[in-house]
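Continuing from the previous page of notes. For each protein in this section, the sequence appears first, followed by its structure tokens. Read the first protein now.
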Amino acid sequence: MQNHELGVIIIDYDICVGCYACVEACPFHANFIDPVEKVPLICDGCNGDPTCVKYCYKEAIRVVE
């Protein structure tokens, strides 16, 4: 399983389909697409209530304790 972890957010790239809904949903425009890998890169978690997690319909992004 390939994961990218930063702060409280984990993206499971085995589940992620690259729809970029998480990038579009971010109210701070803090999520980006890796220009080489073409996968989302995540920020610090919207102060504990990450919008991208709510919008990822594949549930590839989750909050961890």
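Done with the first. The second protein uses the same format. Note its length before scrolling.
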Amino acid sequence: MQFNVAQLLKESTGATRRYELTESIDGLDEELKFLGPLVGIVQLLRTNSGVLVTGELSSVVQVTCNRCLEPIAAAVRFNLEESFRPLTEVYTGR
């Protein structure tokens, strides 16, 4: 998934965008089978050097039970925090 942050980068520090996600993530990892979509909320915050992305996401994956060795569904939840810096200046394109 990709987010166009050009308009956000033109705004002042502290500006935010919030997105609710329900994304299919098939083919993300050959060894991990997702049984449901990636669901959650992602917030993009304009910082003085770029964009800070935070989020709370969840999905369901298939794992092997340690006791019976049968496949089972397991809910997974995680928090995301990642900082991105633009490769070019938005106003000049340099």
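What the second structure shows: Residues 60 and 92 are 43 Å apart (CA to CA). The radius of gyration is 18 Å. We return to this in next week's lecture.
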